Amino acid sequence: MRSRSLNALSDNLALMPDAPAAPRARARSPARPDVDYDELVTFHGLERERLVLIHPGSHGATPAWPVERYAEVADQLGADGWQIAIVGDTLEPERTGAVLGAMQTAALFLAGTMSPQTLTRLIGDARLVLSDDAATPSPVAAARALGTPLIALEEHHGEATSEAVAIEARAALAREDSAHPGDPFTLHTPALHDAA
């Protein structure tokens, strides 16, 4: 079989006129602004009446609180029956992932999975937000604006023990009339659940 050189092929292709570019389809915006939020709630089995958000990220150069302490508080609240969800920016996957990796109880890992609007709505529905970061914009600033109970560890100067923060978190959760823990939280697994 005789082959043609690549140069001869490219010369032939260079003489062919370009096809007119098809107009690019614009991304359709959802019919309702809360579609992403509703899908997130359904897919992950979020229970708003017992949802606690852990946001270990920080705008500061050095986060105020160690990963291990976040995990300890999350474990204590998870064992009490609160649904723990770790949220954060896609820019800090090591820190958010390290909290999940240090935990002994189940938690949802939602870091980097949602738009800022969806995260804001989630913060509004949560029973408590625990975060290093009190800068604007941050989950703490959103929680303050929405009236969601919060613990801003940056304001504790990183000195608080995990036991002290867990006590503060339990007290804040006890003041929430619509909040209640359930059985110790287990992960919702949509694929297995839906197949049954």
Brief overview, please?
41% of the residues lie in helices and 9% in strands. With 196 residues, it is α/β, with parallel strands linked by helices.
Name its key features.
41% helix; 5-stranded parallel beta sheet; Rossmann fold; 8 helices; 196 residues; disordered C terminus; single chain; disordered N terminus
What is the element layout, followed by pairings?
Elements: H1 6-15, H2 35-44, E1 51-55, H3 67-80, E2 83-86, H4 93-102, E3 108-109, H5 116-125, E4 128-131, H6 139-146, E5 150-152, H7 162-174, H8 190-195
Parallel strand pairs: 1-2, 1-4, 2-3, 4-5
Helix pairs in contact: 3-4, 3-7, 5-6
Region (Disordered): 177-196
Protein name: Glycosyl transferase family protein
GO biological process, one term: lipopolysaccharide core region biosynthetic process
The poorly predicted ranges are 1-32, 189-196
Order of strands across the widest beta sheet? 3-2-1-4-5
Radius of gyration over C-alpha positions, nearest whole angstrom: 23 Å
Query: How many discrete structural domains?
Result: 1
Summed up, the helix count is: 8
Walkthrough of the structure:
The protein has 196 residues and is α/β, with parallel strands linked by helices. The chain has a single domain (48-195), classed as Rossmann fold (3-Layer(aba) Sandwich), CATH 3.40.50.2000. 41% of the residues lie in helices and 9% in strands. The chain has a five-stranded parallel beta sheet with strand order 3-2-1-4-5, with helices on both faces. The N and C termini lie far apart (57 Å). Residues 1-32 and 189-196 have low confidence and may be disordered. Keywords: Glycosyltransferase, Transferase. It comes from Caballeronia telluris. InterPro entries: Glyco_trans_9, LPS_LOS_Heptosyltrfase.
